[in-house]
C-alpha cells in the first residue's frame, strides 16, 4: 500500500501560531501596534508607496495602510470567531439531537439539512446578507446559517458511529440510563471532529466575511475591515498596488495559518490520520 507523504516542516506550524498571535494582538489592542490613527488623513501623503515612514504605503485619502489593516483585523476576527461559534452550537445541537434520537425526528431534520446543503454556502451567505441591513450581527448571522448544515451532518455521523460501539451496548446492558450514556459517553467522544472542523471553518468564515464586505454587504464603518479595504483599493491597482496587496495578503496568510493548525489538530486528535 502506498504511503502518502506530506512535506510539512514544524516551522510552518510555528509560523502559523506566531501569525495568529500577532493578529489576535492587533485585534485586541490595535493602538499598541498601529503607528498612526486609522482615520488620520493627510492630503500630502495620498497614494505614497511603502517607505520607512509608512511600511504599507498610504491610501487615496492619505491614511496609513498598515494602521487601517491593523484596526480592521478586529472586525474580521470577530466575524470569523462569532460565526463559527454560532454555527457549531446550532449545527451541533441539530446533529446530536438527530443522531441520538433517530427515527422520524432524525429523518425530518436531516432532510431539512440536506435541502440547505444543496445551496452553496457562499451563495446562501450572500443571499441572507443581501436581504438584511449591513451590520456586524447580520454578517455573522448570514455566515453562521450557511455553515450550520455541515456541522450538523458531521456531528450526526459521529454520534451514530459512537452509538454502535460495544461500550455503549455494554452500558445499556448494565442498566445505565440514556441520559447518563449521552453525557458520559456519547457527547465527550463526539466533539473532536467538530473541533477540527471548527478550526478550519474559522478561516473559511473570515474569507466569506471579507468577500461580503468586498461586495458592499458587510460592515459599514469609518475604519473598513479587510474585505472593504480590499474593495476600495481595487480602483487604484494600476497606481497603488499596495492598497489591495497588503490586506489581501493578510487574509491569505490568516486562512493558510488556520488551515495548517486545523490539519495539525486533526493529527493530534486522531492518531490514525497521522502521516509519516
From TrEMBL:
Pfam families recorded: BPD_transp_1
Presence of keyword Transport: yes
Entry annotated with the keyword Membrane: yes
Topology of the protein relative to the lipid bilayer: Multi-pass membrane protein
Entry keywords, A to Z: Cell membrane, Membrane, Transmembrane, Transmembrane helix, Transport
Domain ABC transmembrane type-1: start-end pairs: 73-262
Family from the record: Belongs to the binding-protein-dependent transport system permease family.
Name of the molecule in the record: ABC transporter permease
Amino acid at each position: 500500500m502506498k504511503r502518502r507523504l506530506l512535506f510539512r516542516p514544524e516551522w510552518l506550524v510555528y509560523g502559523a501560531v506566531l501569525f495568529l498571535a500577532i493578529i489576535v494582538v492587533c485585534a485586541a489592542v490595535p493602538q499598541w501596534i498601529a503607528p498612526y490613527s486609522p482615520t488620520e488623513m493627510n492630503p500630502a501623503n495620498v497614494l505614497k508607496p511603502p517607505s520607512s515612514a509608512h511600511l504599507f504605503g498610504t491610501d487615496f485619502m492619505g491614511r496609513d495602510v498598515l494602521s487601517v489593516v491593523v484596526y480592521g483585523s478586529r472586525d474580521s476576527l470577530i466575524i470569523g470567531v462569532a460565526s463559527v461559534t454560532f454555527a457549531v452550537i446550532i449545527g451541533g445541537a441539530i446533529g446530536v439531537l438527530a443522531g441520538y434520537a433517530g427515527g422520524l425526528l432524525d429523518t425530518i431534520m436531516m432532510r431539512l439539512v440536506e435541502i440547505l446543503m444543496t445551496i452553496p454556502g457562499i451563495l446562501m451567505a450572500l443571499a441572507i446578507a443581501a436581504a438584511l441591513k449591513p451590520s456586524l450581527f447580520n454578517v455573522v448571522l448570514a455566515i453562521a446559517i450557511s455553515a450550520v448544515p455541515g456541522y450538523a451532518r458531521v456531528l450526526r455521523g459521529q454520534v451514530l458511529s459512537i452509538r454502535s460501539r460495544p461500550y455503549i451496548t455494554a452500558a445499556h446492558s448494565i442498566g445505565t440510563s440514556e441520559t447518563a450514556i449521552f453525557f458520559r459517553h456519547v457527547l465527550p467522544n463526539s466533539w473532536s471532529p467538530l473541533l477540527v472542523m471548527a478550526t478550519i471553518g474559522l478561516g473559511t468564515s473570515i474569507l466569506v466575511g471579507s468577500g461580503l464586505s468586498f461586495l458592499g454587504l458587510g460592515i459599514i464603518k469609518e475604519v473598513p475591515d479587510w474585505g472593504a479595504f480590499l474593495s476600495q483599493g481595487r480602483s487604484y491597482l494600476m497606481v497603488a498596488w499596495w492598497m489591495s496587496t497588503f490586506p489581501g495578503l493578510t487574509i491569505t496568510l490568516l486562512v493558510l495559518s488556520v488551515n495548517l493548525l486545523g490539519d495539525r489538530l486533526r493529527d493530534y486528535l486522531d492518531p490514525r490520520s497521522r502521516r509519516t
